[in-house]
Design brief:
The complex is a heterodimer of chains A (about 110) and B (about 120).
Chain A: E1 4-7, E2 10-13, E3 19-25, E4 31-38, E5 42-51, E6 54-57, E7 64-70, E8 73-78, E9 87-94, E10 102-103, E11 107-111
Parallel strand pairs in A: 2-11
Antiparallel strand pairs in A: 1-3, 3-8, 4-5, 4-9, 5-6, 7-8, 9-10, 9-11
Chain B: E1 3-6, E2 11-14, E3 19-21, E4 23-26, E5 32-38, E6 44-50, E7 56-59, E8 62-65, E9 75-77, E10 86-93, E11 103-105, E12 109-114
Parallel strand pairs in B: 2-12
Antiparallel strand pairs in B: 1-4, 3-9, 5-6, 5-10, 7-8, 8-9, 10-11, 10-12
Classes of the chains: A mainly beta (about 110), B mainly beta (about 120).
């Protein structure tokens, strides 16, 4: 299995608070991705990174920001959490943008 | 735009039955195609892939063939087991246009296999 960890694995937070989710990889892959999974929608891309300090938006980026200061870490921040951001968040990595992606175990976030 | 459409679930089968989960796609170029599997409480695992037309991906008894003429990548298994119960996602990675490097997923198909 690819060495990908996510933290925390579960979080409950209140509306309006900032939340940061962390993805850590030990594979030295260049590309990292954040997805959210919601019933009936499959997985949707939030943001991705193609190198240290190089990031771009996905299809559902509103309300989210990311940072990548080291190859191994990719942070997802919800600037002011809303109930619509209750979801399961997955990080993924790949060594090439044309190759398959490997997924972390996920973070279940509940915004009350 | 790019999209992936999977057959509606849930799918319920008896052990040793034949499985087909349909998947069709739209893309601007010639995408790579994937099937991922998600077991309860876990992340997605790559099940199989195909990178060009007529390629057949296979793993753990599952197979899927890249059909460019019908833009399809249907998942099949000849004899399912209870342990195959999971959610299955079809996805494509489009090498063309603004979607380069971005996986597009179907909505997922829940499979339940009974003894």
């Amino acid at each position: 299995d690819a060495g990908i960890t996510q933290s925390p694995r579960h979080k409950v937070t209140e509306t309006g608070t900032p939340v940061t989710l962390r993805c850590h990889q030990t594979e030295n892959h260049r590309y990292m991705y954040w997805y959210r999974q919601d019933p009936g929608h499959g997985l949707r891309l939030i943001h991705y990174s193609y190198g240290v300090k190089d990031t771009d938006k996905g299809e559902v980026s509103d309300g989210y920001s990311v940072s990548r200061s080291k190859t191994e870490d990719f942070l997802l921040t919800l600037e002011s959490a809303t109930s619509s951001q209750t979801s399961v968040y997955f990080c993924a990595i790949s060594d090439d943008e044309a190759s398959e992606q490997y997924f972390g175990p996920g973070t279940r976030l509940t915004v009350t | 735009g790019n999209s992936v459409t999977q057959m509606e679930g849930p799918v319920t089968l008896s052990e040793e039955a034949f499985l087909t989960i349909n998947c069709t796609y739209t893309a601007t170029g010639y995408p790579s195609l994937f099937w991922y599997v998600q077991y309860p409480g876990e992340g997605l695992q790559l099940l199989l892939k195909a990178t060009k037309a007529d390629d057949k991906g296979s793993n753990k008894g599952f197979e899927a063939t890249y059909r460019k003429e019908t833009t399809s990548f249907h998942l099949e298994k000849g004899s399912v087991q209870v342990s195959d119960s999971a959610v299955y996602f079809c996805a494509h990675l489009d090498p063309g246009g603004t979607s380069y490097g971005k996986l597009t997923f179907g909505q997922g198909t829940i499979l339940t296999v009974h003894p």
